[in-house]
Amino acid sequence: MIRFENVSKTFVSGGRAVEAVKNVDLEIGKGKVYGIIGFSGAGKSTLVRCINLLERPSGGKVYVDDVELTGLSEAELRKQRKNIGMIFQQFNLFKSRTVYENVAFPLRKSSLTKAEKEEKIHQLLELVGLTEYKKAYPSQLSGGQKQRVAIARALANDPKVLLSDESTSALDPQTTKSILKLLKKVNEEMGITIVIITHEMQVVKDICDEVAVMEDGRVVEQGGVFEVFASPKQPITKNFVDSTSNLSRIYELVEEKHPLTVLKKGQCILRLRYLKQDASEALVSYISRKYDLDMNIIFGNIELIDENPIGGLVAIVSGEKASVEKAITYLENKQIGVEVILDA
Amino acid sequence: MLEFLGKIIPNVLDKPDALAESIQETLIMTLWSGVLIFVLGMAFGIILTVTKHGGICENRGVFQILDKCINFFRSIPFIILLTGLMPLSRFIMGTAIGVPGAIVPLVFGATPFFTRQIENAFAEVDPGLIEAAQAMGCSTPEMVFQVYIKESLPGIARGTTITIISLLGLVAMAGAVGAGGLGDFAIRYGHDRNQADVTYVTVIILVIFVSVIQYIGTFIEKKNIH
User: What residues contact A236, with CB distance under 8 A and at least 6 apart?
Assistant: First the structure.
């Protein structure tokens, strides 16, 4: 659906060239919800703007639905842009227009009759649940409602692709959930491919099928969300994965010599990661019985991604050194990642 | 009542026709030059906004030339424009005196000011809206009319009000060099013939004009803020 071929974007400001996007090759499949995650300045916003050419790439080609956008004239490009809806962090609604007029804006030049337009706008407002607000002005709406209007507006031209640039970053967690749910609905019911730019792993976890991790203008890791979550390869990806659980808190505790991490002889702290798509076995109680170990779980985080449990545990294990080693081998054979964080 | 007025403003009651005529001249000069200033200032404001660095039709050459011209005309004192532009007035309007002769210097005097007002009003439009409009496939004219102008109506109303009021001041000054109007009336009688009451009445009339303009301007501005 969307294809980047060796796309680069260099900004020149004050005589200094800044490479915001470096040689990105990426393919985003039709009907997917695709996340692009990175810290601010990683180039993800620039990359997504290369899809509808709000930023023209300095090099490389961009295809949307097999049309090479980078090779089009301005007029043809404007036409193609109607196939690509976009929503923003700051909503970008027209303050001088009512909710109804904002949604009607992209339809000004459509070939629909007046009645068809009204019907269409009504349907869109119903989809986003704002029918009774159609005469309100944006200043009278909450952040979540504004984003809903923006989504309705972005869908007015029946786009094939919806780009979301940090669309939930200015919203509280509960509103974020409801907006993500709406996006998922748009994806599933209307078959629209969605590209989501975010710095929050939680967003990726909640609705994305696939994810690309960006750092310093490059895509450093990509793949299915479960795959990336279960076995992150790049340090930055690990960082993002950690950001959604409390498991990495243990490193801070060890560092500051928290009483909890002061071990007695024969104890060690283990971190277990579920890597396989099946964590239904009772592993903890099994090794505890079989190797005669005491397991004191201090952090735990298990979540469902793509219907599969993912996450891990941090536990203080006490027992014979040899037994602990056997237990580790057993777990590793069961596709559990084991890390010895501290050993006394 | 008339008796009372006759006591405090005898010299004004002497010449009601001259007063009426000068009010009319002031209104005509303000209206005609105002219309031209509005159209030109809007056009220049739009050109500056779209051609500036990062604008939707960035063009350094056009921007720099227009920007410098505006600064140039803004720095010339109006009284110098009045005399300096006489040849141009004669060429365009056929005369350099009277009401028609004042139009050219008034336009040159107030258009740069109004252009800056419009430029400011457009600068307050959130760049995010321009980006959103671009993403929706809007052309440049659509972005100018549907986004820049539509979204900055309160700012345009404010800038227009300020400009008309300062234009009223320029019109009075133009009177001093023979363009007629209230300024001419006040100087000819109030100053030259030492009829102070004429000056006071002129000032009061101008205060009323300014108040009415400000009231209408504020009303339009408020109506467009949502």
Answer: A38, A39, A213, A215, A220, A221
